[in-house]
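Re-run with default settings, no changes from the original entry. Doing this only to confirm the output is reproducible before filing.
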Amino acid sequence: MKPFRTVEAVGFSFICAFFALASAGFATYSSRTEVDGRMLVYRREYRLREPDLPASRYKEVLAFYLGVAADEQQSLLLRSPESWRP
């Protein structure tokens, strides 16, 4: 996986790590937020296994993509150290 977005984390502590994984047979999605030195790295991978699906699977496809969209709307909480003031 290649980084999708990096954010410099100078003067902040990383509070929570996010990891998401969704699989629906026709596609998989995973995302991860991690610390790499002084950088926060957001990685995301989407794999489409079956590009053509029957209309009868519409609800399954919709549920999968709504889950992906919800993950992409996640927030990241950064906290400045007690001794650091802007």
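Residues 1-6 have pLDDT under 50 and may be disordered. The chain has one domain: 3-77.
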